[in-house]
Write a structure and sequence with these properties.
Layout: E1 3-16, E2 19-25, E3 38-41, E4 53-61, E5 66-72, H1 76-81, E6 89-96, E7 110-116, H2 121-132, E8 136-143, H3 152-158, E9 160-165, E10 172-173, H4 176-182, E11 189-193, H5 196-205, E12 210-214, E13 230-233, E14 236-242, E15 249-251
């Protein structure tokens, strides 16, 4: 069930270069059903900016009714959001979208989680859920540079973890695909979230595997009404899915990247 709630800021801090971790408390958390879902955040108390900002859920603690959001400060909206402090209330709509489906079918399986930049956060809750079901998660995280990397220790606590950076300042120099090849990583299922170029490369390289992709698109409404985030489907020039409501998670064969 989607609800609109004023959520309490429990903590808010910069954890890497222009990367912020925001912990919120509220009843909305009890409605989160799958890792990979997101929320739509109103970043100011006024009318501007008009549109909410979609932010993926990095962790959900239903016992405490708290969730963690991780976002990049890169525009007017997220700059305003970064100024929110502990004790304030933030208008949040959610949970939104269809996330990664996780269950007992992953028991005993090697699962590879690959994230790029701000696509990394939803993979953390996914990894925690997969471990609960007996899966063995392996993480490959890609960043532009070391100063922009985050949550390495968190992922290491959950399973085998490797980093790639574009400038080689930490981990392997290159992309997540370079790490997979260099480490000769074997897996049964691949889950990925990140920029389209990364998702496209993974889809092409591992089209013989079970691959699930969480797409990143600019969104207007977040509930499937405005058609701002459509994605084409294979073998149908006029066919499409809406990333916000049909996704953001799809089997790789379901979408054209």
């Amino acid at each position: 069930m989607i609800i609109n709630e004023k959520m309490l800021v429990v903590s808010h801090s910069e954890i890497a270069l222009n990367i912020y971790e925001l912990r919120l408390r509220g009843e909305l958390v009890s409605n989160i059903t799958n890792p990979g879902q997101f929320v739509h955040v109103k970043v100011s108390d006024g009318y501007a900016p008009l549109l909410r900002r979609p932010i993926s859920i990095a962790k959900a603690d239903k016992l405490e009714n708290e969730m963690v959001l991780i976002y990049r400060k890169e525009g007017e909206g997220t700059a305003l959001l970064s100024q929110k402090t502990k004790g304030q209330l933030i208008d949040v709509l959610g949970p939104l979208g269809n996330g990664f489906k996780v269950g007992s079918e992953y028991n005993g399986k090697q699962v590879l989680l690959t994230g790029g930049g701000i696509g990394v956060p939803p993979l953390y809750e996914l990894s925690l859920q997969l471990k609960k079901y007996g899966a063995n998660p392996i993480h490959v995280l890609g960043f532009q540079t070391e100063s922009a990397s985050f949550y390495e220790e968190n992922f290491k606590a959950a399973g085998e973890t490797y980093l790639a950076t574009a400038d080689g300042s930490t981990g392997i120099k290159g992309f997540v695909t370079d790490v997979i090849e260099a480490r000769q990583l074997e897996f049964d299922v691949l889950f990925a979230c990140g920029p389209s170029s990364m998702l496209r490369a993974l889809k092409e390289k591992f089209n013989h595997k079970e691959v699930y992709l969480s797409l990143e698109e600019r969104m207007g409404c977040g509930i499937g009404a405005c058609f701002a985030c459509v994605c084409h489907i294979p073998d149908s020039p006029e066919g499409y899915v809406k990333v916000c409501s049909d996704g953001p998670v799809f089997h790789a064969k379901e979408v054209v990247i």
